[in-house]
Write a structure and sequence with these properties.
Radius of gyration: 18 Å
Order of helices and strands: EEEHHEHHHEEHEHH
Strand order of the largest sheet: 1-6-7-4-5
Structural class: alpha+beta
Number of helices: 8
Shape: globular
Number of strands: 7
Length: 204
Amino acid sequence: MALAVSHVRLGTSLRQVGATARLAAKAPFRTSMVTAVRIAHLDVDKHVAILQKLGMKPAETEQKVSKMMANQSLIAGVSIRYLLSESFSHLAKQRTGLANPTFNDMKSAFWLCDDPIGHDIRCPRDGRMGCALVDWIPRLDRREQSHFLSWTWQYSLSDLQSALTSFGGSEAHAQCDIFFYVCFFVNNQFRIILESSQAGSEDL
């Protein structure tokens, strides 16, 4: 199995095996009444209310929150728990109709279909409809990336899950502190695959 997993240091970028994934720089937001406010995948409405109580105008609040949510999305990773979950396995098998689909199979079934996953969710990065898979999965299973996964879309579901189980040990399915940069999940495939806005995933 050629999957490679490494810890990463998060900042403005992460690098592994010659690949560079640009991450948005994390800059604190300051006002005269607030030292720093950071929305970390919590209740957005709660933070909006706090900012407005502190005197920030609604338009400015919306702008700041939108920027924070975009940054959040850019650095979000998918949990090892979700990747090993029955929920994800069922989704992959149900969408593809295969017992052990590859991620290329999932690409077609997830996005090149009549009801692509995330088509009805606005992308926090560019404000357009159609979001990255990481913005569609349960909130508890997306947080700031802690690890980078080097792999290929030719791997099957069982290949990935077997490797992650070996990496995480017997309790890997229950771990809640490992969040992967996985291109399949973190890139907005609506822009890459459906719109061909950059080098696509044909040869991954």
